[in-house]
Amino acid sequence: xxxxxxxxxxxxxxxxxxxxxxxxxxxxxxxxxxxxxxxxxxxxxxxxxxxxxxxxxxxxxxxxxxxxxxxxxxxxxxxxxxxxxxxxxxxxxxxxxxxxxxxxxxxxxxxxxxxxxxxxxxxxxxxxxxxxxxxxxxxxxxxxxxxxxxxxxxxxxxxxxxxxxxxxxxxxxxxxxxxxxxxxxxxxxxxxxxxxxxxxxxxxxxxxxxxxxxxxxxxxxxxxxxxxxxxxxxxxxxxxxxxxxxxxxxxxxxxxxxxxxxxxxxxxxxxxxxxxxxxxxxxxxxxxxxxxxxxxxxxxxxxxxxxxxxxxxxxxxxxxxxxxxxxxxxxxxxxxxxxxxxxxxxxxxxxxxxxxxxxxxxxxxxxxxxxxxxxxxxxxxxxxxxxxxxxxxxxxxxxxxxxxxxxxxxxxxxxxxxxxxxxxxxxxxxxxxxxxxxxxxxxxxxxxxxxxxxxxxxxxxxxxxxxx
Length: 468
Hints:
The protein is an alpha/beta fold.
């Protein structure tokens, strides 16, 4: 059967989507035993969902000053990119901003505005970004404190957000280190970390494995998932080869990869079949027909079958791109923000429907913020930016951290001393504080926070307070 032949590259790609990353390196028995014991420690369920916005989201057009004086300064800096003041969706944080400044959301984000204002299940974390220690403009200019390397670089700052590595190269990410701290797994069926958007540094642990699936779930091996006699025979032969004894560690490891990838795909797909009833939607809320919507719908379905998978803790990674807005920002950004808003809302509504909204927290990350100033057709790479946190446990309807209150003077400044030039704001809240707040809510003990967020000891506030 010529059409049933699979090329090696196709096999590797399918295996990765079916859980190949998890299968690499069989967990030592002691580590596996610790994993099961960790699962027994937790009587409840919690999930974190990282929504990574690749390219560097221009969040100064996502959350915008709308009061007269501050909007005037914003408009002067943004020029042709400024969102019309009258179109902003008003939001009123419970904690007043400096000078009584008021905020609005981009008009393409009505769902987020509702989650913030009415549901109280969305919080804004302002001017947050990678820092090694609190940094002033004078310290930045004098280089008198340690700074994250390669600021304003896409790859480097993605790594900073995902690993919190500071100046030290890190092979692990902070979600991976959470899994390490909690004993690698919190259920016998799957690892704690599950990615629906490929392999990533965020979920890499020193000992803990991550499980990589496709946007709609694990992809079964082609040719092995049929019910006809030939497919059944082919599957039996495959399993026999995978279970055979091999003389080298490489052969044994590769065989283990294939066996566990096949087993994991079967386990998850069998579980998902329980909520994927033909003609009966799993959730009342419709998810947007976009790559991000597809990923988040699958995450919701994975949460729905958490009991079948025996999972007490899970961290999911989903992602969407297109946010590198050097040009065509006015045309492109509204659709990007509309998609994020609708997808986060649909996901939150699904958790409410399942009765787990209090146990599931979604949060955004992005490469970096962007310049407040316009380059004529878009914005350039910067540093601090705004992130969103959504969930039933979120102390929403508020802004955490210090939103840069703009003012007009000899130069445009953020509280007078945060702009390193061109509207690039020094973060006033660190990504370590952001991660530590999420990790503590998730169940990481205070003594282990420095393991997850290595620079957290350099900041007075270890928990930003946006989770109850």
